[in-house]
């Protein structure tokens, strides 16, 4: 029959696990630092090493001490705690110095102090006291353990406790107050760590858990719980860095070693392009590495490596691409000042070094915050050209999705890659070899320059022609197109050939398109009528719901499925309809569409289902 547990034995069991700690050091001597120490600590069970000991815990802490004079010091320590069941007593012991670095083989040295526990009346706290004489300096230890008043069977209880040391003597004079808080609930961390450490085969518990947390954020949060989970997550860095975020312009145009080390694991890369003045307003001085991120905090732990480490990740391929692009661009740089030449050279080399290592990249998202008017080529547009050129000169074999969310008019101008009108050096005269011809998805959320009055008529016509040419370059190969106007309705990308000044252009024929999303477009009726003839493989057509919230544009709830019937092949037989928008046109009792999921009393039809009927 098992012996009944005592309050002291329950406290000892409750220590097991991982803890966050914060320690205040106050020294009365100038030679001993005062400050705040923050870090983590673990109490890990181990095989008892004395016959009088019923259980042992290895205590290990590590963290940083920030002193009052501004210094930051890394520190760690280890003790061994023992529980003697005969005496019902906890004791703390030093670890032999020459075994501290030998993980799992730490040896007990000599006694630090015994902990005499007693329950404090009218309080949930149990206090413990001990003392130790270190030569001529005296240590007084005071523990305060806070156990819950009620514990369910199997619960270990304690989630917080504190320790105070008062040290007085000829060599030392300080107090140390430490607060401990469990990092992951009661004993969950230790049990989880044990299960993950035992697992290691493909498709076992660890593999399935990490796969389910592989969203670019959750795994990094788990990594911060304890040292064991930190090491387990770092063992497979590809899971940690599948989503990366970069903001430009980079304050250091030279490529970052940490960035080059982690981009080979990246599957989704978001690059935000801002004017430098806007970036300075949003953030104070910040290093390139600090602008990388994956969940909420948008920061990636920096990796300290030697300067030669990036060479092992494909230096040769990056050099070849860099040399080719910079050689092709040398004539253009002759027209610039020396400072501009260096800046352009460094920026393009940086992006080439990044993209030449992106062997797993599947999705590239450009968030371009440029002038929605017609500003010409600013640093934002120069950044777009650098990124586009670097992509074309790099081998990114798995890139299949490009999202321009948002993009402005001049962004489209500088993203052109087909024909002689493209900016920058040409990577290949064979368009079939370019990365753009391998894309499956193109997602464009375009800031409408036609509604703010910033463009002259000539500029509006020029922009429509450029947009038509840009979309035409994707028409033969693209599988999925998402197109949304921001800031107001704009012309349908399917009917640009009907705009004034573009009547000589042919309608675009989308040979491979299977999915189409359109939002905030005019002439929605006419756009859908073209679907039958111009999209032979189309399987899915969606329109943006009226009054859809910007925060929900990525979800299916903001989009309405439209199932077109085959439209008449002769456009001249169709009756012209009035009304600029699918979302505002009243049916007047007749409709080309059969509303689905809409009240029969509604006269505004946001979804079109039947194109077979002609209105009278």
From TrEMBL:
Record region (Disordered): 284-313, 570-597
Sequence ranges of Polar residues compositional bias: 570-584
Biased composition (Low complexity): 293-306
Domain DUF6314: 15-182
Origin: domain of life: Eukaryota
Pfam entry (one): DUF6314
Record InterPro entries: DUF6314
Designated name of the protein: DUF6314 domain-containing protein
Species assigned in the record: Hortaea werneckii
